[in-house]
């Protein structure tokens, strides 16, 4: 376990962001997300007895991201996406790599360009809403990672996007990233006068889905043969 201060001081070359559950890297032409290993779990400042335990669903969220990128590349080629490279597990960590896309923060855009980005985003959202599925989740994936608005009692914004600046094309948005929660679900939140469907979604999950306990990802030491010649394995807590 490590404090947030120390994990930032000791971060590897290419690591530009550390969250409570993963690290983000830019290495060469790749953008890489990696789940935290157990020794990287962070303790609460001021109370070292409390550890922030990352959700065990992160490997499946990376699988979701991969499935969505492949699905949209086929079904909605007009949506700009980073090129998928690979996803794999190593030494207790899961890696998800896509091509690195150059861009700038929206804060650096002129007001005119911000309006263009807004219109482009609305077009992409309309394209996403035109896609249809008979079942929730991601096409081809049997495991579901419900959005936070369904699994928690508070509403959160789960559709993540990130304009990455100009390219050789006419559009300003060069790639929309972070599709970990990009699944087929009802609208994100009930607007004024609309019916709140969170409870209905929860009831559907309880009625038609089984809770799956994600397996613990063993690190290198845990993969070494035990004295009896077998490898040790653990369940996620």
Structure notes:
With 237 residues, this protein is α+β, with helices and mostly antiparallel strands. It has one domain (16-208). It is built from 6 helices and 8 strands; from the N terminus they run E-H-E-E-E-E-E-H-E-E-H-H-H-H. The strands form 2 sheets. Strands 2-3-4-8-7 form a 5-stranded antiparallel sheet, covered by helices on one side. The protein has a 3-stranded mixed sheet with strand order 1-5-6. 21% of the residues are buried.
Keywords:
237 residues; alpha+beta; 5-stranded antiparallel sheet; 27% helix; 17% strand
What's the SSE blueprint?
Layout: E1 2-3, H1 4-9, E2 15-18, E3 22-27, E4 30-35, E5 42-44, E6 47-52, H2 58-75, E7 84-90, E8 93-99, H3 111-130, H4 148-151, H5 198-208, H6 220-223
Parallel strand pairs: 1-5
Antiparallel strand pairs: 2-3, 3-4, 4-8, 5-6, 7-8
Number of helices: 6
Q: What low-confidence regions span 5 or more consecutive residues with pLDDT below 50?
A: 154-169
Mean pLDDT: 82
Q: Compute the number of structural domains.
A: 1
Helix and strand element order: EHEEEEEHEEHHHH
β content, as a range? 15-25%
* SSE class: alpha+beta
State the end-to-end CA separation.
16 Å
In what order do the strands lie side by side in the largest sheet?
A: 2-3-4-8-7
Largest sheet features? 5 strands, antiparallel
The oligomeric state of the chains shown is single chain
């Amino acid at each position: 376990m490590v404090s947030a201060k120390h994990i930032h001081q000791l971060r590897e070359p290419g690591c530009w962001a550390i969250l409570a559950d993963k690290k983000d890297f830019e290495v060469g032409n790749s953008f890489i997300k990696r789940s935290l290993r157990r020794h990287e779990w962070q303790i609460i400042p001021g109370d070292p007895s409390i550890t922030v335990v990352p959700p065990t669903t992160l490997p499946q969220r990376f699988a979701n991201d991969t499935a969505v990128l492949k699905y949209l590349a086929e079904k909605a080629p007009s949506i700009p996406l980073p090129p998928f490279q690979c996803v794999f597990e190593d030494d207790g960590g899961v890696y998800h790599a896509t091509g690195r896309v150059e861009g700038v923060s929206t804060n650096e855009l002129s007001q005119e360009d911000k309006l263009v980005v807004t219109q482009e985003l609305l077009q992409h959202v309309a394209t996403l809403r035109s896609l249809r599925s008979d079942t929730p989740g991601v096409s081809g994936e049997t495991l579901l990672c419900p959005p936070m608005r369904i699994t928690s009692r508070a509403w959160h914004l789960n559709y993540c996007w990130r304009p990455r600046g100009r390219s050789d094309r006419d559009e300003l948005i060069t790639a929309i990233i972070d599709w970990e929660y990009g699944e087929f679900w009802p609208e994100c939140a009930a607007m004024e006068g609309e019916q709140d469907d969170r409870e209905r979604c929860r009831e559907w999950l309880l009625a038609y889905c089984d809770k799956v306990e994600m397996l613990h990802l063993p690190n290198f030491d845990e993969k070494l043969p035990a004295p009896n010649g077998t490898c040790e394995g653990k369940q996620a807590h």
